[in-house]
Amino acid sequence: MTIRRRCTERNCKDGRRCLAHLRFDVMWRGKRYRMPVNEYAIPRMEPGKQRPIESMEEARDWERLFIGEIKAGRDPHRVPNPSSNISTELDDVAAFLDAYLERCVMPACEASTPCGARPQC
Ligand SMILES: [Zn+2]
Fold it and tell me: What is the CA 5 to chain-centroid distance, rounded?
């Protein structure tokens, strides 16, 4: 199980239905990645629309991205550059790689289509 449903915060009234303290808990190639869902998701939301997640469906969407980042060799604790910077900073290799990973690798990993052209998957 990747999303820990049971809230482990003390004094949390919502218990099993708690969304505020949901955590990812992912094992990948012998390494364990744990992180609160909101801590991962909120910085990646569009500016002005940032708010805590509101449903398990939303948590699962973020879970796919979380796993995609890990499989792409990225540190999920690092917030990627905002996508608005990408087009103006293509000479910046790091920004280019971020753009590449966002646009090409992660959507490919989410779909069940073969992605042999992208060895990161
Ligand atoms: Zn809680």
Answer: 17
Burial of 8 (0-12, 13-18, 19+ CB in 10 A): exposed
Low pLDDT (below 70) residues in the chain = 1, 81-96, 104-121
Residue 28 near residue 70, CB atoms below 8 Å: yes
Instruction: Give the count of beta carbons closer than 10 Å to the beta carbon of residue 10.
Output: 5
Task: Please give the distance, rounded to the nearest whole angstrom, from the Cα atom of residue 39 to the centre of ligand 1.
Answer: 14
87 CA from centroid of ligand 1 (Å): 39
41 CA to centre of ligand 1 in angstroms: 16
Among 40, 48, 47, residue whose Cα is nearest residue 21: 40
CA-to-CA distance for 105 and 27, rounded, in angstroms? 20
Q: 0.85 cut: is pTM over it?
A: no
